[in-house]
Design brief:
It is a single chain. It is elongated, with a radius of gyration of 20 Å. It is mainly alpha-helical. It folds into two domains: about 10-70; about 75-200, no CATH class. Strands 1-2-3 form a three-stranded antiparallel beta sheet, with helices on one face. It contains eight helices and three strands. α1 runs antiparallel to α4, α2 packs across α3 and α6 packs across α7. It has helices spanning about 10-20, 25-35, 35-45, 55-70, 75-90, 95-105, 110-125, 160-165; strands at about 170-180, 185-190, 195-200. InterPro entries: IS30-like_HTH (IPR025246), Transposase-Integrase (IPR051917), Transposase_IS30-like (IPR053392). One of its GO terms (biological process) is transposition. This is Transposase IS30-like HTH domain-containing protein.
Length: about 200
């Protein structure tokens, strides 16, 4: 069975603590939990304290990071610089910027606010919008375009409202980042409610 889950529950953190006391290795713990070893390794690195790993403390760290992220974020200079850097250097979309920040527990404004920032920059003569694949415009299909037609495809405008409201877990959004001169690409998969981001180099 493929171990593709990266999140840990409160109960699993208590299991980790007990297994560490039992002198189990990280690889053994991952096998028992049904997780990838990297998940256990990251948990121990991020949520241990000076005296070792404690499940209650680890859960507290996780809850505090979630609480900080949910709080309203001001558009600070560090956030502005981070957005500009990832727009111009990484060619990431606003959704991907937010997803990465959420995954790392860093402060970030919403992707809607980032789009507004880009629009304001364009209005004032800036060129940040040029780093977006659609450049804030709806692209028209060229005559003779050999775009593949997907049978029974459902338009994004027709998707259920619950997906747009991001109220449930399990709705995924797939996108691609293409490098300059079409050299190299990265596939991104984002869970819409949590912003959890998966990336794979193509």
């Amino acid at each position: 069975m493929k171990k593709n889950k990266t999140h840990l529950t409160r109960e699993q953190r208590y299991q980790i603590e007990a297994l560490l006391v039992a002198k189990k290795s990280q690889k053994e713990i991952a096998l028992i939990l049904g997780k990838d070893p990297s998940v256990v390794s990251r948990e121990l690195k991020r949520n241990s304290h000076t005296r070792g790993y404690s499940a209650p403390m680890a859960q507290m760290y996780v809850d505090e990071r979630k609480k900080r992220f949910k709080q309203k974020r001001k558009f600070t200079d560090p956030i502005r610089r981070k957005i500009i850097r990832e727009l111009t250097g990484e060619q990431w979309s606003p959704q991907q910027i937010v997803g990465k920040a959420r995954k790392e527990g860093e402060p970030m404004v919403s992707h809607e606010r980032i789009y507004q920032f880009i629009r304001d920059d364009k209005t004032n003569g800036g060129v940040l919008y040029k780093n977006l694949r659609h450049r804030l415009k709806h692209r028209k299909r060229a005559v003779g375009d050999n775009k593949v037609i997907i049978p029974d495809k459902v338009s994004i405008e027709q998707r259920p409202e619950i997906i747009n409201q991001k109220q449930r877990f399990g709705d995924w959004e797939i996108d691609t980042i293409v490098g300059k001169e079409n050299k190299g690409a990265i596939l991104t998969v984002t869970e819409r409610k949590t912003g959890f981001l998966l990336m794979k180099k193509l």
